[in-house]
């Protein structure tokens, strides 16, 4: 057996904790569809149309509406893997401690999942504006535009997240900042990147939210309207044939889905 006392469940647990602490936006998304997860699966997300309101006071009769449903597909099509070898000499010198390796591997997997989630938000959200943002006042105006678009789309006021790039955050944190101190009572813990509250949003500065030529960018979204399904699916170890070394392989399987485009409003300046 590769790596003395290798137990997959123990390694998975060791990976999961730093994986979660490295996340910024994934904790804010909808996880209700995770259930039984397998790579290549397609989860059918069903919605029901709203019955029409009828004026009973005038007609005194009712028309029985036939309900119809809508279906969206959440495809589990992302598979991120990390594989590394542990030389016998290195293992002896490190006294068998792989904590730094598992921590770095988990962080890398978490960052890649966040990168794919951001790409999904950008590609499948709705644009709230593309004007250049060069001052704190313009950054604030962009947030107002995002908020207005969400209000018009009748998006619930709870669970609203504003993800901002470092450049956008720098403007919000300037002397003209209107940010208020983050209230973490509802979260139970301080989420990565939270820099405050603004206009009903919990504002999260995300180092991976990049935009063309490092232009300030922001994405406002309603957490339950974005689905994430994922898990560290496999952790395996084995003995290499052509070296005095063991190998470890880790597979993270996941999928993301913007369930309601108008509940994700982007402000990605074109110039």
Write the layout of secondary structure elements.
Elements: H1 8-21, E1 42-48, H2 56-59, E2 69-75, E3 78-87, H3 88-93, H4 99-124, E4 126-129, H5 136-152, E5 160-164, H6 166-172, E6 194-198, E7 201-205, E8 218-222, E9 226-239, E10 245-258, E11 264-267
Parallel strand pairs: 4-11, 5-7
Antiparallel strand pairs: 1-2, 3-10, 5-8, 6-7, 8-11, 9-10
Helix pairs in contact: 1-4, 5-6
Question: Could you describe the 3D structure shown?
Answer:
With 271 residues, the protein is α+β, with helices and mostly antiparallel strands. It has one domain (8-267): Alpha-Beta Complex (phage-related protein like fold), CATH 3.90.1690. Helix content is 27%, strand content 30%. It has helices spanning 8-21, 56-59, 88-93, 99-124, 136-152, 166-172, and strands at residues 42-48, 69-75, 78-87, 126-129, 160-164, 194-198, 201-205, 218-222, 226-239, 245-258, 264-267. It has a 6-stranded mixed beta sheet with strand order 4-11-8-5-7-6. It has a 3-stranded antiparallel beta sheet with strand order 3-10-9. Strand 9 (226-239) and strand 10 form a beta hairpin. Helix 1 (8-21) crosses helix 4 and helix 5 packs across helix 6. The chain is flat. The mean pLDDT is 84.
Question: Any descriptors?
Answer:
271 residues, alpha+beta, phage-related protein like fold, 6-stranded mixed beta sheet, 6 helices, 11 strands
Largest sheet properties: 6 strands, mixed
Morphology call: flat
- The CATH topology comes to phage-related protein like fold
What's the mean pLDDT score? Answer: 84
């Amino acid at each position: 057996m590769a790596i003395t006392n290798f137990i997959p469940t123990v390694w998975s647990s060791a990976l999961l904790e730093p994986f979660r602490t490295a996340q910024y936006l994934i904790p804010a998304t909808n996880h209700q569809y995770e259930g039984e997860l397998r790579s290549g699966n397609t989860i059918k997300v069903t919605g029901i149309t709203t019955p029409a309101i009828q004026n009973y006071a005038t007609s005194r009769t009712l028309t029985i509406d036939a309900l119809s449903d809508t279906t969206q597909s959440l495809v589990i099509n992302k598979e991120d893997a990390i594989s590394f070898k542990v030389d016998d000499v290195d293992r002896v010198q490190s006294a068998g401690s792989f904590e730094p390796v598992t921590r770095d591997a988990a962080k890398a997997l978490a960052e890649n999942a966040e990168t794919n989630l951001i790409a999904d938000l950008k590609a499948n959200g709705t644009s709230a504006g593309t004007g250049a943002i060069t001052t704190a006042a313009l950054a604030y105006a962009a947030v107002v535009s995002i908020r207005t678009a969400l209000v018009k789309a009748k998006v619930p006021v709870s669970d609203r997240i504003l993800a901002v790039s470092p450049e956008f955050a720098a403007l919000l944190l300037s002397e003209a900042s209107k940010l208020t101190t983050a209230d973490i009572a509802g979260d139970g813990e301080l989420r990565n990147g939270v820099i405050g509250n603004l206009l009903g949003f919990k504002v999260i500065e995300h180092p991976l939210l990049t935009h063309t030529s490092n232009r300030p960018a922001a994405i406002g979204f309603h957490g339950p309207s974005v689905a994430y399904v994922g898990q560290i699916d496999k952790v395996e170890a084995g003995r290499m044939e052509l070296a005095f070394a063991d190998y470890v392989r880790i597979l993270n399987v996941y999928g993301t889905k913007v369930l309601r485009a108008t509940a994700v409003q982007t402000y990605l300046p074109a110039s």
